[in-house]
Amino acid sequence: MKYPGEMKVNGVWLPSVTTFDFSTEDLDLDAFRTTDCLMHRQRAGKKIKLSCAWQIIEDNDDYKETFNVLDNLPEYFLMQFPHPGGNLAFEITAYRGPMSTSMKTFFWDRQNHKLALWQNLKTNFIER
Fold first, then answer.
1. The pTM is what?
2. 93 belongs to a structural domain
3. Nearest-angstrom CA–CA distance, 65 and 42
4. Cα(25)–Cα(90) distance, rounded to whole angstroms?
5. Cys-Cys crosslink for 51: which of 5, 21, 98, 106, Cβ 3.0 to 4.6 Å?
6. pLDDT tier for residue 27 given thresholds of 50, 70 and 90
7. Residue of 78, 71, 89 whose CA lies nearest to 10
8. Domain membership flag for residue 1
9. What pLDDT does residue 53 have?
């Protein structure tokens, strides 16, 4: 994973993503509805959220390295990614949300070693 791609986290380039969903989310200091159903909000700000997925099917070194990089990120880290506003090297300080992956298969090889193949690595990155 020493090549530049769309996204860099904590100084490490990640493989190209299969799914890259960008959203901004409002943070409310206070929000409530009155009896006439009118919403009242005190907006504190907005933050970026990226939902990412990798369809790395084989349990190869790229998968293991990507998983380990994502699983061992510090609490907050610098992140670089293409922004829909045109900046291809947009940077934020972010944290990683829940991360998940699915086991595709589990088997023994001819040398009687246990092997597992994984797929569908997913996580969210949220602006601090």
1. 0.81
2. yes
3. 42
4. 17
5. 21
6. confident
7. 78
8. no
9. 93
Count of domains forming the chain:
1
How distant, in Å, are the alpha carbons of 5, 29, 39 from that of 2? 9, 41, 49
Which residue segment(s) compose the domain that 82 sits in?
8-30+40-127
Please name the amino acid found at residue 81.
Answer: F
User: Which residue's structure tokens are 């994973």?
Assistant: 1
Contact predicate 93/76, CB 8 Å: yes
Tens of pLDDT, residue by residue over 105-125, are 887 777 777 777 788 899 999
Does residue 3 fall inside a structural domain?
no
At 27 the three-state DSSP class reads strand
Strand partners, 102: 119
* Structural domain includes residue 35: no
The pLDDT value given to residue 2: 55
* 48 close to 22: Cβ distance less than 8 angstroms: yes
- The residue to which tokens 């901004």 are assigned: 24
